[in-house]
Inverse folding.
């Protein structure tokens, strides 16, 4: 046979089948199997066929072939009028839809595996001091594709079986610890999960994390875990002990212990946030509590970072590695909080904190916020922390925070945040009796709010304009009723707008401002009406600071009406609540209570307290009631210096 004859034989030198041709053939074969019905075909079976047939990294080619086949069938259906032929083609199209679903599942699984493999590679190739940090980066909930439980379980297996000739025995031991930590964290969850939100339903429990109680969530969770690091942390928080001090004194476990803690804390945090966000009967309350939960957990990690950095009994490299990892988790949670759509630009973080806890939280956030770039998230976080600093009497610090937040918001084009900081600076200027500055800030906020359509910012700006104008007129004894009516009209407009928006935080501020305005112009009855509404509104949003201020001025309004017994009740209640959150204004209430005690006499004053004991106990408890005389003594001592 000649070479020409050999070349003419189609079977002598067959052309290799391209990947596209093979995939088109595979699709046709699967469709035929489904339609002939000679064997039972399930979606799981189709999935396994695709696993066997589609080579790694080529699923997009298969997807293109499948799309081409589907489009071809759709064109045939459109071109045929024969109903029988159309029915057969539609059956074929349904079979292709099964393949399409299975392909999507396969692509998701392979992408998940690819993410895990990339994560393992980053952890293994990282320098030993960076491995824990690298692993916790992979657990960051801000990632576009957050690792799920199945991926973490795959990571555990991969870390246990990793083989690399460049690794030393110490490296293998470190990777084993990280793997064990992940595994222990997952194993702890089934025991914890039934108790994550059960404490909320317990009788007499206050929702929040600010009180020391053996029946609170942390003590309950401590009973469900066994590892010393996690257990001691939960116990310390439950007793309101300093996390930082305890961590510094006790040192740390191995990196596996910290990995386990990260899994456990993130699971508790996620469950609580999801539960609060799901409260449809009061979405505003639920979202506020979800935000407070995030801030609480960020504070915990921040204190852990601070504590381990001070642990002198720990190897320097090991200590620095863990401190850096804890610090990173703090930033991750802060970023999650700052990205929430319901970010409380006009509220504090008092629902979850009180007293020393609030002061420690603000202190420990200083370092993370200093190291974050001037992003929109940082500007928003500085806004609420600036507001919180006002409660502690740290006015210069509050001004600095709001000024920095204002600059960041301006650069980032975050107009609601910019307007909020102008409003906060206006309120601070009012407190400093710098009324021209207060008016200037509030007018800038009002103009910008109207330009951008920020109704919430406008409501707060109107309130600030009216309040600062009333106080400015009063400061120069300009008692023209027409002027006061004009200025109070700003407050009324702000109130109506806040009512329309159903924004409870702004409502609380409007009521408070109207109450003070009427108290300023010596209309105490009208002031009491608004201050009582303001107290309820502040209580509804968990703003203990504003609630305490309203109670303070309610005491003063009743005192001006010579209703001294009621004034004693409000002044003592305000004194205790403001002292609990570390607000300097507790002394203002204590001053009035001391004056009333002097006017009535010690014995009569005690009788009034006993009379109002049933009203005080639900608000401050037995311990709070018993502490009232001690607070008055403390105030008198402070005043004597």
């Amino acid at each position: 046979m000649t070479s020409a004859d050999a070349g003419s034989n189609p079977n002598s030198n067959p052309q290799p089948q391209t990947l596209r041709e093979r995939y088109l053939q595979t699709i046709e074969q699967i469709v035929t199997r489904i339609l002939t019905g000679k064997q039972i075909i399930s979606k799981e079976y189709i999935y396994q066929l695709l696993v066997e047939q589609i080579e790694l990294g080529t699923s997009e080619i298969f997807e293109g072939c499948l799309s081409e086949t589907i489009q071809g069938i759709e064109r045939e259906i459109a071109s045929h009028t024969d109903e029988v032929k159309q029915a057969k083609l539609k059956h074929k199209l349904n079979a292709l839809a099964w393949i399409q679903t299975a392909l999507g599942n396969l692509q998701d699984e392979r992408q998940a595996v690819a993410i895990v493999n990339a994560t393992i590679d980053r952890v293994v190739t990282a320098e030993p001091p960076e491995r824990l940090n690298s692993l916790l980066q992979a657990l960051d909930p801000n990632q576009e594709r957050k690792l799920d439980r199945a991926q973490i379980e795959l990571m555990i297996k991969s870390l246990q079986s990793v083989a690399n000739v460049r690794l030393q025995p110490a490296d293998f031991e470190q990777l084993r610890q990280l793997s064990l930590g992940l595994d222990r964290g997952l194993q702890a969850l089934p025991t914890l999960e039934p108790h994550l939100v059960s404490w909320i339903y317990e009788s007499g429990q206050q929702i929040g994390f600010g009180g020391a109680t053996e029946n609170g969530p942390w003590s309950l969770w401590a009973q469900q875990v066994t590892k010393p690091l996690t257990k001691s942390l939960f116990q310390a928080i439950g007793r309101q002990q300093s996390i930082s001090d305890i961590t510094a004194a006790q040192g740390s476990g191995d990196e596996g212990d910290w990995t386990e803690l990260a899994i456990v804390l993130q699971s508790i945090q996620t469950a609580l946030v999801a539960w609060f966000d799901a409260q449809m009967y009061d979405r505003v309350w639920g979202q506020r509590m979800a935000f407070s939960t995030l801030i609480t957990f960020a504070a915990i990690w921040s204190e852990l970072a601070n504590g381990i950095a001070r642990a002198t009994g720990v190897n320097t490299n090991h200590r620095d590695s863990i401190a850096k990892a804890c610090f990173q988790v703090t930033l991750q949670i802060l970023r999650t909080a700052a990205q929430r759509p319901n970010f409380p630009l006009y509220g504090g973080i008092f629902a979850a904190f009180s007293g020393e806890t609030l002061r420690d939280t603000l202190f420990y956030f200083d370092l993370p916020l200093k190291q974050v770039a001037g992003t929109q998230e940082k500007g928003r976080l500085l806004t609420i922390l600036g507001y919180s600093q006002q409660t502690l009497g740290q006015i210069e610090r509050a001004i600095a925070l709001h000024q920095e937040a204002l600059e960041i918001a301006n650069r980032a084009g975050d107009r609601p945040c910019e307007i909020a900081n102008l409003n906060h600076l206006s309120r601070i200027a009012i407190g400093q009796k710098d009324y021209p500055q207060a008016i200037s800030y509030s007018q800038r906020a009002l103009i910008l709010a109207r330009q951008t359509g920020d109704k919430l910012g406008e409501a707060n700006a109107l309130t600030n304009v009216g309040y600062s104008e009333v106080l400015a007129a009063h400061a120069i004894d300009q008692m023209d009723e027409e002027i006061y009516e004009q200025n109070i009209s700003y407050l009324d407009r702000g109130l109506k707008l806040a009512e329309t928006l159903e924004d409870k935080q702004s409502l609380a501020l409007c009521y408070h401002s109207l109450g003070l305005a009427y108290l300023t112009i010596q209309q105490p009855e009208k002031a009491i009406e608004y201050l009582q509404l303001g107290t309820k509104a502040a209580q509804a949003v968990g703003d203990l600071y504003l609630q305490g201020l309203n109670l303070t001025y309610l005491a003063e309004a009743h005192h001006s009406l010579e209703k001294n017994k009621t004034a004693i009740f409000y002044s003592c209640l305000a004194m205790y609540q403001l002292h609990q959150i570390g607000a300097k204004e507790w002394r203002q209430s204590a001053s009035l209570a001391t004056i009333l005690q002097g006017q009535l006499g010690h014995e009569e004053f005690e009788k009034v307290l006993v009379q109002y004991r049933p009203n005080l106990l639900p608000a401050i408890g037995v311990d709070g009631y018993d502490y009232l005389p001690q607070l008055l003594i403390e105030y008198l001592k402070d005043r004597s210096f």
